[in-house]
């Protein structure tokens, strides 16, 4: 019997709050104190939140599942989803809502300090809740935060296609391997890779990934699909680059939009490049994402220019 899929993308994990601190440079030289302009701000939005925001802005029916605390940070996360029309299932997290401090330099580079006390390896999603949401979804995007590792077998049993973002994986840390070798679509950054192609091919050979995408910032991205490695060009940002925070999440959301629309992998990657470039023009203190019409128009321009 065919199941009714009323969720386009189920996003697992990655809900939390960031405190943004603009610094005069990275690495930050030691001194007794700094005067921070334009100030310090705390706002909801970590990797899962930004993927869910990007998907929703593109018109996809999105549902976010994570463990969230009964605390001020959790209130910010719930308000973000409520204000942006993103369905949220918040499982109580006694340790509190995930949070981080992001130091952002003048060139938009970011250094994140994650509070590891807000989640524990024994954390679990209620299996019945997870399974019901997975069976209602066309796709699931899984963050590498707790408690997503033990959720992977349940998602596989539910028969939903999976994607994940390994972020700045070095290709060696075993924590990332269950995600890398279970997902059908794998995103990662080249930031800590000495040989991106080798890592990408190892992911495809050892796991079940049909597509592997490695983003390389201003150098574009690498796309491995059907055994063929392709370079994806950068997209021109529509405004000055102010912050790289959320660029990878925007790339993943736009790529998945293309995937669920039936587009070939290379066009999905062009969508990702356009959305990622736009995200770099949005200050860390804000949350914003491209709408569908703007994405399609800018991607068409990029495709025409690269022919």
Summarize the structure.
By secondary structure, this protein is of the alpha/beta class. The protein is built from nine helices and 13 strands.
What does this structure look like?
- The protein starts with 6 loop residues before the first strand and ends with a helix.
- The chain contains 9 helices and 13 strands.
- Helix content is 32%, strand content 24%.
- The mean pLDDT is 93.
- The radius of gyration is 18 Å and the shape is globular.
- The longest helix has 15 residues, at 265-279.
- The protein has a 9-stranded mixed β-sheet with strand order 5-4-1-8-9-10-11-12-13, sandwiched between helices. A 4-stranded mixed β-sheet has the order 3-2-6-7.
- The chain has a single domain (7-15, 45-92, 124-306), classed as Ribokinase (UDP-N-acetylmuramoyl-L-alanine:D-glutamate ligase, 3-Layer(aba) Sandwich).
- It has helices at 47-57, 72-84, 127-135, 152-158, 177-180, 196-206, 247-260, 265-279, 292-306, and strands spanning 7-12, 16-22, 40-44, 62-68, 87-92, 98-104, 110-114, 137-142, 162-165, 185-189, 211-215, 221-225, 228-232.
- It is an alpha/beta fold.
Average pLDDT, to the nearest integer? 93
End-to-end CA span: 44 Å
Q: How many domains, as an integer?
A: 1
> Any idea what the shape is?
globular
Q: Supply the number of helical segments.
A: 9
Number of strands: 13
- What is the strand content? 15-25%
Q: Gyration radius, to the nearest Å?
A: 18 Å
Major sheet, described briefly? Answer: 9 strands, mixed
Q: Predict the CATH topology.
A: UDP-N-acetylmuramoyl-L-alanine:D-glutamate ligase
What strand order characterises the main sheet? 5-4-1-8-9-10-11-12-13
Low-pLDDT runs: none
Q: How helix-rich are the residues, as a percent range?
A: 25-40%
GO molecular function, one term: kinase activity
Keywords: Kinase, Transferase
Protein name: Adenosine kinase
InterPro entries: Carboh/pur_kinase_PfkB_CS, PfkB_dom, Ribokinase-like
